[in-house]
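Morning, I've got a small favour to ask if you have a moment. I've been staring at a protein lately and its backbone has me curious. You're getting the sequence in one-letter code plus the fold written as C-alpha cells. I've dropped the whole record in just underneath, so have a look:
=====
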Amino acid sequence: MGNAKANAAPAAGQQRAKVERRGGIRWIAWLTESSVFQVFILLCIVANAAALGIDAHFGENNPWHMYIEEADTVFLGVFTVELILEFLAQGPRRYFRNGWNIFDVIVVGICYVAVNPAISALRTLRVVRVFRLISAVPQMRRVVEALFGAMPGILATFAILIVVFYIGAVMATTLFRGEDGFHDLGQSALTLFQLTQFDGWGDTIARLQPKYPWAWAFIMTFTIIGAFAVLNLFIGVIVEAVQEAPREEIKAEMDEVQEGVHEVHISQEDAEIVQRRILSEIVALRAEIAALRTDSGGPTQ
C-alpha cells in the first residue's frame, strides 16, 4: 500500500503540474478573453493615443498638459496590469510562444524608458504605445502577419528591382551622360526611379528627344519593366500572403484545439491514477480487516 501511494502521488503531481503549466489560471483566462475586457483595453489605447496627439499638437504649455501626463501614467499602469493578467492567464509557455505578447512587452517596456522626464528625446517614444492598437485588433494583426509572411517574397522582388535599376542606370548614364539627371550612376538611378513613379516623365522625354531621337524607346521600355512589371510584383506577393494568412490562423487554432485535447487526456490519466490509488487502498483495507477478524477468531468473508 505504501508503494502504491509513493508511485501514484508523484505521477499525479507531475500530471497536474503539466496541466497548470499549459493552461495558466482559468478564471483569469476567462477575464482576459471576455469582450468587455478587450473593448476596455482597446478604448484605453485609443484614448491614450488621442491624449498624446493633443499634447503634441498644442505643446507642453497647453492647459491640459498636467492632466494628460497624469492620464498617461494611469494608462501605462493599465497596460502593465493587462500584461500581468495575460501572463497569468496563458502561463509562461503559451505566453512567450505568442509573438504578439512579446511585442506588447517590448512596447510597454519602451514606454517605461520614455517616462524619464530628464531626457526629452525619450519622451517621444511614448507614442510607440499606439502600436498596441495593432495587437489589440485581430484584423490589423492579420495584415501585419501577412506582411511578415510575405517578407521572403518581398526581399526577392526587391533584389530583382535592384538589378533592373542598376542595369537601367548603367545604360542611361552611358547613353545620356552630360544631360541633367544623368551625370553619374546615382543621378541616373534616382531619375529612373522618378520615371517609374511617372514624376516628370513627359518633361524628361521632351528634354532628351531633340538630341536623342530614340530616347523615348529607352524611357518607355524601362518604365514598362520597372513600373508595370517589377513594382507590381510587390502587390502580387502581398496579396498572396494576405490570402495565406487565414489558413495559418486556422492551423494555429487547430494546434490550440489539439493542445486542449492533450490537456483533457492528461486530466483523464490523472483521474485514472487517483482511481487506481483509491482501489488499491480499498483492497489493502479489506485485507487488513480480514486479517484482524482472523486473529480475533471471528468469521471471515
